[in-house]
Write a structure and sequence with these properties.
By secondary structure, the chain is an all-alpha fold. It has one domain: Uncharacterized conserved protein DUF2267 (Globin-like, Orthogonal Bundle), CATH 1.10.490.110. It contains 9 helices and no strands. It has helices at 3-14, 19-36, 39-47, 51-65, 78-89, 93-110, 113-122, 125-128, 133-140. The radius of gyration is 14 Å and the shape is globular.
């Protein structure tokens, strides 16, 4: 999926007033997601994203990886996830959660299904609930 198509879908799902806010929300969600999943997984995500959206994923993954010998993930819950997105997107936590759900829905369509299964599996249950209904239910088993 191309950058413009992804941003257009996020804009439609979130009903944001323009492409700029939709792009800002998308980048905020992707950056925060990259901090939450293992850095190798974030790199695989970035490889399947358009370059404009891959860059913030790689940067966030690099920043959160810290020690290359220990490519661990940051552990945080939905409240922290929403707070980081809100800070990056310049919005409140409730809006950030709605935007995150929209971005994750578009991401689910943009990435290979196997990769999204790994992403879902790396998330705690509260964040995983933001995934499209079928994906969230699959990974709860």
């Amino acid at each position: 999926m191309q950058h413009d198509e992804m941003i257009g879908k996020v804009q439609a799902l979130t009903q944001l007033p323009g492409r700029g806010p939709a792009d800002r929300a998308t980048r905020a969600v992707l950056s925060t997601l990259a901090e939450r999943v293992p850095s190798g997984l974030a790199e695989h995500m970035a490889a399947q994203l358009p370059p404009e959206l891959a860059a913030p994923v790689r940067q966030a993954a690099d920043n959160s990886a810290g020690d290359p010998a220990n490519p661990s993930t940051e552990r945080f819950d939905l409240a922290t996830f929403a707070g980081r997105i809100a800070g990056r997107a310049g919005t409140d936590d409730d809006t950030a959660v709605r935007e995150a759900a929209a971005v994750l829905e578009v991401l689910d369509a943009a990435l290979a299904p196997e990769l999204m299964e790994h992403v879902a599996g790396a998330l705690p249950a509260d964040i995983r609930e933001l995934l499209p209904a079928g994906r969230a239910a699959e990974d709860a088993d």
